[in-house]
Amino acid sequence: MNFGVYFRVLWRFRVLVVAGLALAFLAALLSFVRVGFDGGAPTFSYRTPDVWRSASTILVTQEGFPYGRAILDELIQAEGTDEEDATLVPRFGDSGRYSGLAELYAELAKSDAVEAEVLAGAPPGSRYEPQAATTPSGTVLPLIHMVGYGTTPEAAEVVAERAMESFRAYLAREQAENNIPRDRRVEVVATRQASAAELFEPRSTIRPIIIFLAVTMVFVALAFVLENIRPQTPAAPKVEPVEHPASARRSA
User: Fold this and answer.
1) How far apart are CA 147 and CA 154, in angstroms?
2) What pTM, to 2 d.p., does this model score?
3) Considering the domain boundaries, does residue 240 fall inside one?
4) Integer Cα distance of 132 and 188 in angstroms
5) Is residue 248 part of a domain?
6) Which residue did the predictor score with more confidence, 50 or 68?
7) What's the mean pLDDT in 133-145?
8) What's the chain's average pLDDT?
9) Would residue 41 count as lying in a domain?
């Protein structure tokens, strides 16, 4: 590569190249920010916002906190009988069943009825994602993380909190409508309110960079096309006259 030739061509069409760089910068800037006018004064806003994330957590269990008990049965003594006649009857469900319910409830939390409550009045770009918690080895736990996303930290936290509360209300309504006795209902207990939002996905700068490089390459290529169409003719070297030796002797 002869960089001297490249530099000479770019320098010859420097006005075109500089104009191209300015246009490339302007195009990249306008692809990244939106320019508006508020009361005659220019205002700037990003075209693509940051995405923030927050999460709340609920525990799938039942009344009486079975996870704190060593025995899941209960002694029942019939009225008018002796203590010896008391019998063990099931009182709590199998703990493994709660983990399966957590996976099921994570899907139910995505239903239209719950989604409509969560996102009602939420800012544009808000969404949520229920996730059944798992251990590093992949074992499903009886916990559900209600992960909320928003374009601001406040929006993400509100969505995460509303997702938890909306699903709890939805489950309670379904249990009441189906006449499930209270002592036999599955409970979803809030164990963690919405966490402080953290930046999940910063706005991308890839598109402005690509636009800047593309426009710049177009103008650089145009400079070389013009060089091929109108090549610069090198100036003829200046030739100094050479005095003939015989003439020099005669003049002497």
Assistant:
1) 13
2) 0.70
3) no
4) 13
5) no
6) 50
7) 94
8) 86
9) no
Mean pLDDT value of segment 109-125: 93
Query: Cα 9 from chain centroid?
Result: 44
What are the structure tokens assigned to 113, written together?
A: 């009825």
Residue 185 pLDDT > 60 = yes
Query: Structural domain of residue 99, as residue ranges?
Result: 56-66+94-201
Position 119 in a domain: yes
Dist. CA 209–CA 179, nearest whole Å: 60
Is it the case that residue 234 has pLDDT exceeding 90? no
- For the chain, what is the domain count? 1
Residue 145 backbone dihedrals phi, psi, to 5 degrees:
-95, 125
Encode burial over 146-167: b for 16+ CB neighbours within 10 A, e otherwise: bbbbbbbbebbbbbbbbbbebb
What are the angstrom distances between the C-alpha of 57 and each of 9, 103, 151? 64, 14, 21
Tell which phi-psi region holds residue 211, choosing left (phi > 0), alpha (psi between -120 and 50) or beta.
Answer: alpha
Residue 189 confidence class, pLDDT cut points 50, 70, 90: very high
CA Rg, the chain, in Å?
Answer: 38
Tell me how many helices (H) and strands (E) the chain has: 7, 9
